[in-house]
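Ticket 4471: requesting a sanity check on a complex prediction with zinc ion. Repro inputs:
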Amino acid sequence: MADTWLTDINHFLDSGGEIVTKPAPARALGEYFASIIMMASYPDPDYPPEYKVSCRRRPNRKPCQEEIAGWIEPESEDIYWICPKCQDKGRISNWKGTIWDLSDAEQLSH
Ligand SMILES: [Zn+2]
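Returned structure tokens:
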């Protein structure tokens, strides 16, 4: 069974609300989770292709690159995400109000 990533996005942010720049692996992971937040919080389920997130895992050293599925769990309002192919999955908390939170942009698209 694959592990579930439990992510508090605040751990990847500096005092200005931007992703930490160091160490590099933290930055890479932070950018990955930030793109999942944008994709999952996009107000329309048919988010534009540029918001697509590709799986970053490399099972057996082969890049998975499957499209990640993400959604907001209504009860906890955490973001859940899963790779349908390799089953990598996780949960992101404290994403609301970050610069990647698109959930308030609804009125702009209608
Ligand atoms: Zn995958």
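Notes from triage: The two ends are 41 Å apart (CA to CA). Leaving this open until the requester confirms.
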